[in-house]
Amino acid sequence: MSAQPLPAANPAPRGVETPDHDPDLCGTEGSIYLADPQALAGRASHPLIAGTRVHLLTFGCQMNVYDSEMVAGLLGERGAAFVADPAQADLILLNTCSVRAHAEDRVHGRLGALKVRKRHEPGLLVAVMGCMAQKEGEHIAARYPFVDLIVGTRQLHQFAQLLERVREGAPTPLLAIDETPSVQFGETVARRESPHQAFIAVTRGCNKRCTYCVVPYTRGPEVSRPVDEVVAEAGRLAADGVKEITLLGQTIDTYGYDLGTNLWTLLERLHPIAGLERIRFITSHPEECRDELWRAMHALGDKVMPFVHMPAQSGSDAVLRRMARGYTKARYLEVIASARKLCPGIELASDWIVGFSGESDADFEASFELMAELKPQMSYIFKYSVREGTPAQRLPDDVPEEAKKIRHRRLLDLQEEISLEQNRASVGRVEQVLVEGLSKNDPTRLTGRTRTRRLVHFPGTADLAGSLVDVKIVSATGLSLLGERC
Ligand code: SAH
Ligand code: SF4
Ligand code: F3S
Fold this sequence. Notes:
Elements (H helix, E strand, L loop, with lengths): L28 E4 L20 E7 L2 H16 L3 E2 L8 E6 L4 H20 L4 E6 H13 L5 E3 L7 H9 L6 E3 L20 E5 L1 E2 L10 H5 L3 E2 L2 H13 L4 E5 L14 H8 L7 E5 L8 H9 L7 E3 L7 H7 L5 H14 L4 E8 L6 H14 L3 E6 L17 H25 L4 E9 L6 E5 L5 E5 L8 E9 L4 E5 L1
Parallel strand pairs: 2-3, 2-4, 4-5, 5-6, 6-7, 8-11, 11-12, 13-14, 14-15, 18-20
Antiparallel strand pairs: 1-2, 9-10, 16-17, 16-19, 17-18, 19-20
Helix pairs in contact: 6-7, 7-8, 8-10, 11-12
The protein binds S-adenosyl-L-homocysteine, iron/sulfur cluster and FE3-S4 cluster.
FE3-S4 cluster binds next to helix 1 and helix 5.
């Protein structure tokens, strides 16, 4: 990412270290490094935090990225600085994910290494927050007693005060994992990785009970934020130079049901905000999408991007039933057909789980066929990982690892074929691209995304970051498009 001048209200995230993965990908990690030397000066009102050098590592989904940005905002407001090199930090902060065993294993690996470091550096602070903290905070406290602070998903807005208590000498590990109603960040100014793009959490938690999934237990029941509050946050972001917002919710289509409103009303209210060029939202649930949404996306199509991330998970009705997803393959296809009819040009991304309990060869072939029929623009494909405390824990994890691997590979290969075919078909077209910054691999090129989130590289200079440009596509690979500015 390029070092771009930023509006004064949100000091420049110099030296931003962007995760080198697609931000949608769960179970990956990336440091948020928002070095702001000015923040070190004149923060006497928060002497317990001012000057603290924080290394923040985020695992998991976009909701975790958003939470990290908000907590970074809270600490930044109080004079903390952010460092990319963990060796330079006074506070190591891990924002954790429980969605698959792999995500948890990596946090255990980090904590094991920190145990050794803390022996030589007793003044170092270690804090664990997020989904693992919520789900097994007590276990973390017992296994890693050197950890200073453990904050669950519901008390993150109190992170700064909790840290101050640790610095005042409160007994550690200090545990804050109460199931309070919902996290409330108020008007905290997030410290983001990108000056031009921002996430906004619009619902918290999940009311579904997909049998494999731990999220309802780590995040609690679904709570929506009022429309006015979301519009105010989007307005602040737009005034700060943000061009693209992505609304976040575990099942974004149920946004507002608890408040007597809905997603399309929110989109209508966000649409007039001056300066905002693109509005996106994730993640959609097939059983909750309504035709009104597709119509609104089409009507507001200059700003609401024609892209939907709607996980199928499986193409087998028997597996979908055991997953308690609430739809069949036929119903899923109907929803997609409506979307494509009412919002022409819409593109689709999907998630798939291979090797769920009882998934036979024929069940897997049904997933393979569904992907081939759907032709999603991209997919996240996961091997089933049993999660403690979920209903599916009672079902046998009976697909051998080797079979999971083969099925995983087959879906990956099929998706690659589909993506390559679609990318090749766009050669010769002119695409509107929101420029994100200089390419990491080639500083003579810019990187950006089309309206449907396809990645584009094209020659250009850093001053274009944050602008919308027309790019003619000249060649394609399965992963990205290469173009020239028109
Ligand atoms: N709320 C979103 C995403 C939840 S987690 C939704 O409902 O779609 C993101 C993805 O992780 C899921 O879509 C699913 O494909 C995958 N996932 C969740 N639990 C999993 C598990 N136990 N094993 C493997 N993959 C899992
Ligand atoms: Fe998990 Fe299902 Fe909720 Fe998504 S909708 S977060 S997969 S329980
Ligand atoms: Fe992981 Fe929690 Fe997100 S479990 S996927 S970080 S909601």
